[in-house]
């Protein structure tokens, strides 16, 4: 399988919570931190979402203190970079053969459109079954919950993973707003879930070609693990 030196990044199309008035969307740093590492390593990236088009961004991820973390503010100031988020590809139109890896970003919006997207489930399964790297961070693993492989088995069954913990959900005051407990749902699919001892601590889990990160602080570590795995061939 020839390398393409391209990575597909998946983001949400949802901009609000179903039950409350909070606005949500992509957590911008989970895109930029990954992008910085992968770009430095020589990879090109495309961005896709369930609906395509303009990508909603979680307003809390645009707070000055958050933007300052890990250089996100430099990407936010870059009009060319941000303009790319006005024209995301539509997942249904994406061909997995054109990429070496897939990366599912977080932000609470993904909890509402990732799990029940048949197009995303098929795309992730295509990547995995083609021997490519599948990765996700924070709430992004919600997009792995209902992925079934060709033999009907769940992708997550028997896998070591992480994702946004319920403790972290309560600390950011979203326990009553989210549609499910991601930590519990990952385990209910047969996955072995682990998390950092401290909330919001960096935690990345690699299980073969499946790489997951717990929270926004883990996005850079996920990127480093993805690049390492790709370079190992």
UniProtKB/TrEMBL annotation:
- What InterPro entries does this protein map onto? Class_I_gatase-like (IPR029062), DJ-1/PfpI (IPR002818), Prot/Nucl_acid_deglycase (IPR050325)
Q: Which Pfam families match?
A: DJ-1_PfpI (PF01965)
Recorded superkingdom: Bacteria
Taking every annotated instance into account, which residue ranges of this chain make up the domain DJ-1/PfpI?
30-228
Key word NAD present: no
| Entry-linked SUPFAM superfamilies | Class I glutamine amidotransferase-like
Q: Which UniProt keywords apply?
A: Glutamine amidotransferase, Lyase, Stress response
The entry assigns this protein to a family as follows: Belongs to the peptidase C56 family. HSP31-like subfamily.
What is this protein's name?
A: Type 1 glutamine amidotransferase domain-containing protein
Starting at the broadest rank, the lineage of the source organism is: Bacteria, Pseudomonadati, Planctomycetota, Planctomycetia, Isosphaerales
